[in-house]
Amino acid sequence: MDAAAFPRALTPALHAALADTPVVCLLGPRQCGKTTLARTLRPAYGYISLDDTDTLALARSDPNGFMAALPDPVILDEIQRAPELLRTIKLSVDRDRRPGRFLLTGSANLLLLPKLGDSLAGRMTVLELHPLTAAELNRAPGGFLAAWLAGRLRPALADEGILPDPAALAARIVGGGFPEPHLRTPARARVWHRDYLRALIERDVQDVARVKEPRDLSRLLTLLALRTGELLNLTTLGNELDLRRDTVEHHLTACERLYLVRRLQPWHRHESKRLIKTPKVHFIDTGLASTLASLTSEDWPSQRKRFGHLLESYVLQELIAQAGWTEPDLRFWHYRDKDQVEVDVVLTCGAKTWGVEVKATATPALADAAGLRRLAAQCGEDFAGGILFHAGTNTFTLGDPRFLAVPLAKLWEM
């Protein structure tokens, strides 16, 4: 099993970008399948990897000469390693604007890197490829988000006698989305996760930030894995790590740039003074987070609270990934007010707003929709709907036709 064994739902969007844009940049974590997708989609393109030491040295020392020797069209792998090439690419494109000339891949979020972000502004299409989604692992179309936003979800009762399997859900969370661990036993998958993080810290961190003590970054990631889905408190993290707050911020930014974690900003209206304005932090891959937190699928019964936070990160990642091929203009937030009422994920597109709650229970109740009701009241006419994911099998309304309880399995079955 590898990334090539699975159809990637982002493929049509990548095809469309290459058909009308001179430079297309495919970003995402290492080992998520970017190179495989690029080379599968454009097998006739020349291929140059900047992970090769000699190639990288030439690109950095003589970008103009390097560019002159490139095949056309070309796949340039790991572009973040040679930012010197971006200005040369821009000049080349200004002379020849044929679509699809450059297909770049990057294992760092270039839009968060000042030098690279400025060079790319308005001059290319940027797409993000995520680790395999639950739908892709299940070889399903990945159409849940599209169906929900279009209002096509309807109440439905499952056959009697069908019970959800908590162990299967725990295994999905612990497995994460990187292809390679799914080839291995759970114990060997954890070894892969640790090796992956070690290599990333030793090899890639310096491409995105100056980090004097890589061990501090590793310690921070362990703490963040234990706090995924929680409000971010840099001061507390600094105290636990014996690091200055600005150092923790610097290291956290490096982790974001490498697609390890994300900050989920709080949703609020400008006139509201009762909303918490602290971001949450989420691990992007729950397999990595589970390994760092020393959690296995067998821990589900005794570690329900931690698995609840991991499940929240898992669902957020699934929705963000599906947005890439469904509605790229969607933005993601969380909601929390000073009464401790919260909504795990808030989606917005223009003024339209949706809410998502995530519960590990198989039997959600009306009270579980309290956050959705509060969000709807805040939004007024802009509220477009809410769902409460649960571990059961039935789809039903929660006292209001705008609120729908939906089985988590819909994420990988539709």
Describe the structure.
- With 414 residues, the protein is α/β, with parallel strands linked by helices.
- The protein has two domains: 3-128, P-loop containing nucleotide triphosphate hydrolases (Rossmann fold, 3-Layer(aba) Sandwich), CATH 3.40.50.300; 134-413, no CATH class.
- It contains 17 helices and 14 strands.
- It has helices at 11-20, 34-41, 53-61, 63-68, 84-95, 114-120, 134-137, 144-149, 166-175, 186-208, 214-226, 234-241, 245-257, 286-292, 304-326, 370-379, 410-413; strands at 23-27, 46-49, 74-77, 102-106, 125-128, 230-231, 261-264, 280-283, 331-336, 342-349, 352-358, 383-390, 396-397, 403-407.
- The protein has a six-stranded mixed beta sheet with strand order 9-10-11-12-14-13, with helices on both faces.
- Strand 11, helix 16 and strand 12 form a beta-alpha-beta unit.
- Helix 10 (186-208) packs across helix 14 and helix 12 (234-241) packs across helix 13.
- The longest helix is centred in the middle third of the chain and has 23 residues, at 186-208.
- The protein is globular, with a radius of gyration of 22 Å.
